[in-house]
Amino acid sequence: MQATAHLQVDNERVIVTEWRFAPGAQTGHHVHGHDYVVVPLTSGTLRLVEPDGTRDAVLQAGVSYARMAGVAHNVINANDYEFRFIEIEIK
To answer: Where are the beta strands (DSSP E) in 4-71?
Structure first.
């Protein structure tokens, strides 16, 4: 099952997307082309399948984190409830 992306803003400076993951939903493997910030709207665990292996990330609603362009992964909702976050990409 695929996670769903809801584009909120796409202008000359940023792309803002709300991601919604049903239980077990995933993004599919992708590589980030921009630096980005994630703002979790839900607390829970996301499973990250990365080139070096798989790890679980425990996220708290409202506690943001940032990553650099070039990150390659598949993101999977490891919870038994919907997980949501806002992704802000810096152009």
So the answer is: 4-10, 14-21, 30-31, 35-40, 44-50, 53-59, 65-67
Structure tokens at 59: 């996220």
Beta bridge partners of 44: 59
Distances (CA, A) of 9 to 6, 39, 45, 87: 9, 15, 26, 11
pTM, rounded to two decimals: 0.95
pLDDT tens for residues 11-63? 999 999 999 999 999 999 999 999 999 999 999 999 999 999 999 999 999 99
Domains contained in the chain, CATH given: 4-90 (2.60.120.10)
